[in-house]
Amino acid sequence: MTTHDRSNRALAQRDLRHLWHPCTQMHDHERIPMVPIVRGEGAWLIDADGRRYLDGISSWWTNLFGHANPRIAAALADQARQLEHVIFAGFTHEPAIALAEELVRITPPGLDRVFLADNGSAAIEVALKMSFHYWLNQGHGEKTRFIALTGSYHGETLGALSVSDVALYRKTYAPLLLTPILAPSPDTYEGEPGETPQQLAARRLLELRALLEQHAHETCAVIVEPLVQCAGGMRMYHPDYLAGLRALCDEFDVHFIADEIAVGFGRTGTLFACEQADVSPDFLCLSKGLTAGFMALSAVLTTERVYEAFYAEYSAGKAFLHSHSYTGNPLACRVALETLAIFREEPVLERNRALAAHLAGRLAPLRDHPHVADVRQTGLIAAVELVADKATRRPFPAGERRGLEVYLHGLKHGALLRPLGNIVYFMPPYVTTTDELDHLVDTAVAGVERALRR
Ligand SMILES: Cc1ncc(COP(=O)(O)O)c(C=O)c1O
């Protein structure tokens, strides 16, 4: 094999010789193909042998307007010819300035300060540290803890993992982590029979109130994924929970951190999920769709009140300390600006709603399937929960890896589906057509049948 051989097989072999991939037991690649992608086009990924895969998960929930989107690519190329990077301490540039202005304009009211970082987990680290440091600067150094929801996922750096509750990612590293206070999730799948999502949200708020009564004095913030707990299994809940959470955070003097890294930028039907509860958090974490899947960038928006607690003479030692070399990277900021221009100029949310309605129609019949316990959807996130026993909702044992069968079936039939355990979900790019969605759903349904037959 020479390096001129650019077939799937040759590239996969070279990959496996030196690379170590995320979220992967590398031994699996003794039987699962490594897929070398050479090109993207709209919602499609194209491998080195010319096979096409419809990207049903928007490449880890990042892509909005298609792969290699020409408009965004042109902005990126233009920026690269002007300024690729500059230290972001003491120096600034117009793409970052304009991006901050635009983010302040489009996010819920009161979020007037923007701190940039370069990936989702880093944004969570920033929000956690900033919340803690705010209370410290206010003379409340006793506030050192965070409340997170059961089933939450906020990333995999040590701080972000600390406030996450998905055992797969957390368990091994638990001895290294902070201990969060876990509040029961308002996840509707966990509701009592006959309980509406609203009633469940109200019950979960009472439980949160009890936790705050006990722990508010030592708590910096409550952190949640608004409306959909994505990596925890696309678990969804009623917006009332967010409204109630805002009120409780005000009452008990703790911050509200909204992690919209996965759900922001139109995923849930509104530009930001918090809009559906008409609330502004104290910290809003954004990434993924911020650059439509082009560049690593994240932003934490917060209030002037938080900012002012850090604003003092240098000698007071109150400055926020958190820096990444690539903070405020001009290429990423310019790409984000172009992404937001598309939101301004095109009817993105209307299109998404139509697409979401089509998806809902296609998934509805699955509710009657003997191994489907739940079909749920919020905007352009839809999930189908497979179970061994529908009546008791007994799950298939994780070790059976039924979802992997769906993944493998998808690869064979031109679709990138990547179930979370037994949960088959759809989170397509916004440019996906209804015909393409049909292909995705048909492939998933056939994959599920195959996985159930094993
Ligand atoms: C809600 C949420 N928060 C944080 C993260 C972490 O982002 P990143 O993978 O960019 O570190 C993710 C990633 O999936 C996420 O879904």
Provide a brief overview of the structure:
The protein has helices spanning 8-18, 58-61, 70-82, 94-106, 120-137, 158-162, 167-170, 197-215, 240-252, 304-308, 330-345, 348-363, 402-412, 434-453, and strands at residues 37-41, 44-47, 52-55, 113-117, 145-149, 181-183, 219-224, 228-229, 235-236, 255-259, 283-286, 298-302, 372-378, 381-386, 415-416, 423-426. The chain is an alpha/beta fold and 454 residues long. The strands form 4 sheets. A 7-stranded mixed sheet has the order 4-12-11-10-7-5-6, sandwiched between helices.
Structure, explained:
- The modification N6-(pyridoxal phosphate)lysine is found at residue 288.
- It catalyses: (8S)-8-amino-7-oxononanoate + S-adenosyl-L-methionine = S-adenosyl-4-methylsulfanyl-2-oxobutanoate + (7R,8S)-7,8-diammoniononanoate.
- It comes from Dyella ginsengisoli.
- Helices cover 37% and strands 15% of the residues.
- It has 14 helices and 16 strands.
- The strands form four sheets. It has a seven-stranded mixed beta sheet, sandwiched between helices. A four-stranded mixed beta sheet has the order 1-2-3-15. A three-stranded antiparallel beta sheet has the order 13-14-16, covered by helices on one side.
- Helix 3 (70-82) runs antiparallel to helix 11 and helix 13 packs across helix 14.
- The structure holds pyridoxal-5'-phosphate.
